[in-house]
Amino acid sequence: MDLNNQEISQAEQKRRDYRKQQRKRSVWISLASTLAFAAIVWFGLLATPGWDRVEQSFFNWDVAVEAFPRVIDGLLLNLRVLVAAAILVLFFGLLLAVIGTLKAPVFFPLRVLAKGYVDLFRGLPLIIVLYLVGFGIPGLRLEFLGRIPAEVLGIAALTITYSAYVSEVFRAGIESVHSSQRLAARSLGLSYSQSMRLVVLPQAVRKVVPPLMNDFIALQKDVGLISVLGAIDAVRGAQIEVAKFANFTPYVLAGLLFVLLAIPTIRLADRISARFSSREQQGVSL
Amino acid sequence: MIDWNSPRLKVVGLKKFYGERQVINGVDLEVFPGQIVALIGSSGSGKSTLLRCVNQIEDLTDGQIFLDGEEVSAPGVDQDRIRAQIGLVFQSFNLFGHLSILNNITLALRHVKKMDKDKAKSLAMSWLSRIGLGDRGDSYPDKISGGQQQRAAIIRAVAMEPKVLLLDEVTSALDPELVGEVLDLIRELKSGGTTILMATHELSFAREVADWVIFLEQGQIYEQGEAVDFFENPKLPRTIEFLSRMRSR
Fold it and tell me: Quick check: B84 contacting A, CB < 8 Å?
């Protein structure tokens, strides 16, 4: 039924006219304030004494075109590292979270280790983990491994750190599944591990998709840090081009590409979160 | 062969403490095959705890539980195997939210009874059509009414063919207009010969279907008797007071 085609009372007509007027007003106000803000930024920047030099060395179109191939090549490496690390992080994060829930006394040492691991790597800056793994593991001179590529060491370091974060997300998810679900599973004769695998985890994973997406977005930009190990990724590629042209534009270019890469993921995460929260407002338990 | 003269379920000297608080204070009871035993009593009298202890999703503090003569509370007994033989239905349904109604029912059939997928599915479907939910197999729990959810939850337990079915105030969380359909299902289970131990606030229903009624008061059996006689001639003062309080509601 289309409400607009219905006869409406005078009171409703008045309300609608008022709302329409308000909408019109707010459009004008936002337009004016946006223009004013843009003008301030524009003239504020252009008026700075060093703007011409900054423009030359950071926003140089010719340099950007020249540097593009190497930077985009590097970005492809970043993408490969991202995919590999994301998969490993999901696996180890879930594993750590499940270990944390094991209550049997046999698992005591495992549980303590998992807890210690999470504490350690949530606190340790990623850059230090990268240095320790990147220069420490080759330093062990494990000849049978041959020369380990820098990107592999980078994947290892990212996995080590992010697994700790993600395990906490999964743990929160497991705890958020109401205990009555586990009771119902156990009352039917399902074992502890069956109820975990068939009832608790599927529901926990669904609940943590939005926070997981956040960690994925963070990982997406942190893959740029593998450049400190010498992998020729987008950041390192940009660095090489910066040295070649004595111009910082390649950094801006690399940064822009990272942002472009992140935007679809960010929008997707927003949409997923919105869907989840609207479901919860309907009182639907997932 | 069913031995009709020995109890299907026997509880001896059951005690349950939560810390210092004693919730079940030495309860003995027997449920014979095909019998319905009703547990009544005010909130906090220990009805739910008693049922949870029988299913042993709560540890006992003391006492023994026998199922067809086997002491299932003995140390070393595989509790998962026993729970599969003692169905428990909760006040709040507790259907698995991520599974369709059909998969809620087949989950334990497949993973506990190791039934193959198609067989479990057809068994679940036949149960669902019997209770008029044949077209709801693919629905998720949050898309159907409370009465439908509770009936599905009962079927989930019954499909496992438990030796005894425990019903924990299965109508208490329902809107009054939905209570009837759940009670109808229990009536049908009774005529099918299911052995049931149920905690309930539905006194007239208990009087109608139960063979034996137990009145719990502060974790102890205060008075018990054959159903009609129990309701018509309560003997002890607190029973009389409780029954009149419930009737005047």
Answer: yes
